[in-house]
Specification:
With 151 residues, this protein is α/β, with parallel strands linked by helices. The chain contains 5 helices and 6 strands, in the order βββαβαβααβα. It has a 4-stranded parallel β-sheet with strand order 5-4-1-6, with helices on both faces. A two-stranded antiparallel ribbon has the order 2-3.
């Protein structure tokens, strides 16, 4: 019988420098409405019922870890000492996420993600029996964002 608590885990990527922010403060600790950017995806994840959460830190990671220890003490902190990209961060986390059936990867600078979206995404992934599911969005002008080319 599969253990529900081992069905999903969440890896939040928060190791980047955020050079476009033009600040010495790590991007995920920049505040919106008096909370760091990282607060919002973590809160949405917990509200969605995801309890197995790790945050990959790197640039100014001690500051991010200190904030996490005070605000989300149940979240595990993982380290990417050398920022070599998203794939590298996921590979470093492999020993942590290996014991789960599914791993969800979420950027730490996604303050508009909702618990409802995360629940729907997880349910869709499980219902569809997919090996991999990708969530993206459409914008009239995607300048500054990565691209997902469909069709």
């Amino acid at each position: 019988m599969e253990r529900k608590d081992k069905q999903f885990c969440l890896l939040v990527l928060a190791a980047g420098k955020g050079t476009r922010m033009r600040s010495k403060t790590p991007k995920v600790l920049q505040t919106i409405l008096e909370e760091p950017l990282l607060y919002y995806p973590l809160s949405a994840s917990i509200d969605a019922g995801i309890t197995n959460i790790s945050v990959m830190v790197g640039f100014e990671g001690e500051k991010v870890q200190s904030w996490l220890d005070g605000s989300f003490p149940s979240v595990k902190v993982l380290w990417q000492r050398e920022q070599l990209g998203t794939g590298h961060a996921a590979k470093l986390a492999m020993s942590w996420w290996r014991e789960y059936q599914n791993v969800m990867v979420l950027a730490g600078d996604t303050p508009l993600i909702t618990a409802q979206t995360l629940k729907f995404f997880a349910e869709h992934h499980l219902y569809s029996g997919n090996k991999c599911t990708l969530l993206s969005f459409d914008l009239p002008d995607p300048t500054g964002y990565g691209r997902v080319i469909r069709d």
